[in-house]
Design goal:
There is one protein chain. Strands 1-2-3-4-5-6 form a 6-stranded mixed beta sheet, with helices on one face. A 6-stranded mixed beta sheet has the order 7-8-9-10-13-14. The protein is 20% helix and 31% strand. It is of the alpha/beta class. The longest helix is centred in the C-terminal third of the chain and has 11 residues.
């Protein structure tokens, strides 16, 4: 499994494009710039099976609708955020860009334990609410895509609509039970590991 990272948009959001050995792929958090994402997909000969949003904030989904149309792939989001992607207030596009509200609809709402198969790897959905009610992580093959639940040295903000400190604590407590060598790819910033965050992240102490 090859993991490509694109840092896109004004908030420097990480978009990940995965490629399995058989050419199947997965697009996670298409933050912005559908042209750049499609160019990567074409250059690396990737056949995406889906676009997945780790949560329903506009900076993680600006290119999602265009990618669905251009690539002919379904759009997945956590069940707790399925309605928020159509609500500019809850997805924050009304806050940050009131003249360009974002409204989308999902083709599939993901729940705890759902599995997405991409070539030789399966990605299991973990519901990790806190940053938003429908935050999800994807876990597979020693790798965690954590969205804005866990960052290198920090965690996602809790002061946006739907943020819940108690839920975040519960979600983080689940993540620190993962093997320490689990590699974490976050929604913003550099990659890290669960073990590194247990030692160095002040929010996990």
């Amino acid at each position: 499994m090859t993991i490509h990272r694109l840092v896109l948009g004004e908030l420097e959001t990480n978009c990940y494009v995965l490629r399995a050995e058989n050419g199947q792929g997965l697009i996670i958090d298409p933050a912005d710039d559908a042209d750049a994402i499609c160019s990567l997909v074409s250059r690396e000969d990737i056949t995406p099976v889906a676009v997945v949003l780790t949560h329903a904030h506009f900076d993680h989904m600006l290119a999602a609708g265009e990618l669905r149309d251009r690539l002919g792939v379904p759009l997945y989001v956590g069940i707790g955020d399925a309605e928020a992607i159509s609500d500019p207030i809850r997805n924050l596009s009304d806050w940050f860009s009131p003249n360009h509200p974002v409204t989308l609809s999902a083709d599939r709402a993901l729940s705890e334990g759902d599995v997405i198969a991409v070539g030789e790897t399966t990605w299991t959905v973990m519901e990790t609410p806190g940053h938003t009610p429908g935050c999800i992580c994807l876990l597979g093959d020693g790798v965690l895509f954590s969205g804005d639940t866990l960052f290198c040295g920090s965690i996602g903000r809790l002061d946006f609509p739907g943020g819940d400190p108690q839920q975040m604590v519960a979600s983080l407590n689940r993540l620190i039970q993962l093997p320490p060598d689990t590699v974490v790819y976050s929604g913003h910033g550099e990659r890290t590991t669960i073990g590194q965050e247990i030692v160095g992240n002040p929010y996990l102490r």
